Model the fold of this input.
Amino acid sequence: IEVRKADLPWMVEARAVFGLHEVRDNAKLRAWLKSDGKTLGDPKALPWCGDFVETAIKLGLPSEPFTGPVGENPYWARNWEKFGVPVRPTYGAIMAFVRDGGGHVGFAVGEDAECYHVLGGNQGNTVSVARLDKRRMTGCRWPSSVPLPAINLPKMSANAPKSVNEF
Done:
């Protein structure tokens, strides 16, 4: 996945580690997850999607406030439902999803008729883009320190299988 210079700062950070695998690239992934000053722990042992989003936001937007539930525990994916401000689905938005046993969180990069395409961590044990059913989305948020966007969510192909459990 290409890192674009004109991209949103948190998306530049997220794209920079695209493809890292929690086992094969464990040391590099752990170093990146720790680079914002704190981390959940070993990604091969723990669900790390929230840690991925937190790290990308903190590195890309160091002055962004982390308040409420996400300030208390950014590692619990469903806490991101209250982050920043609500926004319509748009490129770079933080999307929270429900899944069996908990939730999932990542960044919107596109959509097709049934699914959002989400750049996230702990998707097939890697930093990847996954298709998540639109009906599973529980929140779509935008950093409060960044003006609300006018960035459309790109239309994408529905050729990849749907992700059903991002653990």
Observations:
- Strands lie at 85-86, 94-99, 102-111, 115-123, 126-133, 137-142, 162-163.
- The longest strand covers residues 102-111.
